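Lab manual, section 2.4: Encoding a predicted structure.

Procedure: take the sequence of the chain (353 residues), apply the prediction step described in section 2.3, and record the output as structure tokens. A sample record is shown.
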Amino acid sequence: MPATVLLLAASPVGRGRLVDAASVLPVLAAVPPAVLSGADTANVVELADPLEPQAVLTRLRAAATAPGALTVYVVGQLQLDRRQRLPHLALARTTASTVRYTALPWHWIREELRLRPAGTSTLLLDLHADTESWEWLRANPLDCGRNNAVYGRIAPPPSRRAVAQPAYMKAVATILRSGVRPPLDLLHQQALTRTASESGGADLVLTTPGPAPGDPHAAISAAVRAGRHGDADALAARHEQTARQTHGPGSEEALHWAEVRADLAMFAGDAARSCRTWMAIASARLTAGQTPDAPAVESAVDRAHHQWGQVKDVASARQLGEELAGLRGRVPGRREGALDHVRQQLSQLQGQG
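Recorded output:
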């Protein structure tokens, strides 16, 4: 089956731009798809200076759900939103005061790749950080997900106001244009060597080869690919029960496995169970003291909302919709009008008897 390659280059227009991210795309685009992906054939999707985070999310979600290996090349700059102080990938319209609404939350990338089969997803990153993001990174790792191989660098803020070049990714592209793709760790080291004199050793180097054999997520993913949805859920349920007994029902470990089971219900075509599970997860996080705008809470409610829209049985949709409306009242999320959408759909369902 063909692999998928997503080329994402984004940076703000105007004074807030730290890096000319899109300048690397012509070099990457000149590389044959098979070399970009490391597979015999590949579909390539290119996003150059996108405007809307939801549009990027749609493309990312499509790439994440495609079969076969996935390689994501990301070039751009990191900024923190003012409310939660969490990293975002700045987009064309992003300013310091609008990060929360105009930039792509970094945790969206992690979430969309979360249940891909272990060992099938690779991220190659060339990122620049502003001053606030750089300070944040000194105390917090950039979380790209436990199942993904990650290679790249994050450059510190420039010493003077200037637009930097994505030197690491240009080095990667130049190496790949030879027509040969070396092993990723070697490709990474070759690119770092070519840019060492420019960075002066100040860059934060990202090297995560990906999970160790025996990861239960790999076994679950294999069962899903084979159509053994019951076996996949049973395995995840055992891990959830162990996590609940060991760490407590509201622990991150237990909630992680609940999230896995919500996704497994989606893959099995049981939208009602998936919706119900996501709402339970959101409620558990709120009960544990997490704020309504916490990323994990917003994500859970957004996913519940999406799955609710897939429920075909009117009675089930009506029952779940009433619960979702109450939850949306507490967790409006980032998409404007989400609560109104639930109320309108619920009104239509009530009219269907």
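Check your result against the sample. The chain has a mean pLDDT of 90.
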